[in-house]
Amino acid sequence: MRKNEGKVYFAFDGDDFNPNEITKLLKIQPSNIRLKNSLPSRKLPKFSSWIFSSDNIVDEIIDIYDMTTVLVKTLEAKVDIINEIKQKFNVTTRLEIVLSFTTNEEVSTPIIGFEIDTIAFLAKIGAYVDIDTYLLPS
What we know:
Elements: E1 4-14, H1 19-26, E2 32-34, E3 48-53, E4 57-59, H2 64-75, H3 79-89, E5 92-101, H4 116-125, E6 128-135
Parallel strand pairs: 5-6
Antiparallel strand pairs: 1-3, 1-4, 1-5, 2-3
């Protein structure tokens, strides 16, 4: 039976910054770094990103509440540093939710929402939320 997939990540995005500098300041190893214009063809990243991600979960039930809570617990003590990074490097902050849904009607759709602590954290750092959804092939 095909299952849903999901992951959550926090990112700093900007035009001209060195993601390694963010790693040094936060003392958190990123899951991924994307550099603006680093790939040939039309798949060019339009900006550079420093990304800290949850694991990609493949299961019948994907719980965004839990996934974001775990991610935020790692970052919430670093609000001041995050805000300094935003100012120093002229970057934005983003919480990204990526969900792939099975078309199997016997599988529950993901649980999407945010705990109060997550919303408070996002407000303190001025982050926006982006949710990308996809259908998995049958």
